[in-house]
Amino acid sequence: MAVTRTFSIIKPDATRRNLTGGVTKMLEDAGLRVVASKRIQMTREQAEGFYAVHSERPFFNDLVTFMISGPVVVQVLEGEDAVLTNRTVMGATNPDNADEGTIRKTYAESIEANSVHGSDSDENAAIEIEYFFKPEEIVG
Ligand code: GDP
Ligand code: MG
Asked: Ligand 1 pocket, 111 CB below 6 A?
């Protein structure tokens, strides 16, 4: 294993319920370090670009509308095997299928309002980090 980086979003359902700290604590307890973080209101254009890979999925418009329904916290996380470590602590997309102790099992409201995003590969992590952060905003 090596120390790598991944990209995370604390989604609007979690910021709305004041769970920024709770989610971040679970990420940190899993061994991840927040090396960049900012609270933003995404524009529709920004959210559509971020989720472009899902543009043909039936839930795309609902997902974009949800992601701009309130502020989000975008973060760069660093740690051993960061993509996998983060995906493990996040839990399954549908909270009904998420393991006990995961962020989604603990906090998610539904398959859509599932509290967190996490990159699914090192390649996508690099693309997603670049989408939201300038290099000088990341301090390891
Ligand atoms: P993730 O990598 O676990 O976040 O899941 P995906 O990449 O497959 O989907 C991206 C996001 O789209 C999920 O985190 C959910 O917010 C949303 N989503 C996924 N599947 C569904 C669905 O069947 N219905 C709705 N409404 N939203 C979904
Ligand atoms: Mg995904």
From this structure: yes
Residue ranges of domains in the chain: 3-137
Q: Any idea which fold 3-137 has?
A: Alpha-Beta Plaits (3.30.70)
Q: Are 10 and 19 in contact (CB under 8 A)?
A: yes
Reading the chain (140 residues) residue by residue, the pLDDT tens digits are 799 999 999 999 999 999 999 999 999 999 999 999 999 999 999 999 999 999 999 999 999 999 999 999 999 999 999 999 999 999 999 999 999 999 999 999 999 999 999 999 999 999 999 999 999 999 99
Residue to mutate, 112, 115, 117, 120, ligand 1, most ligand atoms under 8 Å from C-beta: 112
Torsion-angle region of residue 23: left (phi > 0), alpha (psi -120 to 50) or beta?
Answer: alpha
Classify strands 72-80 and 116-118 as parallel, antiparallel or unpaired.
unpaired
Q: Any binding-site annotation on 33?
A: no
Please give the Cα distance from 80 to 14 (Å, whole number): 25
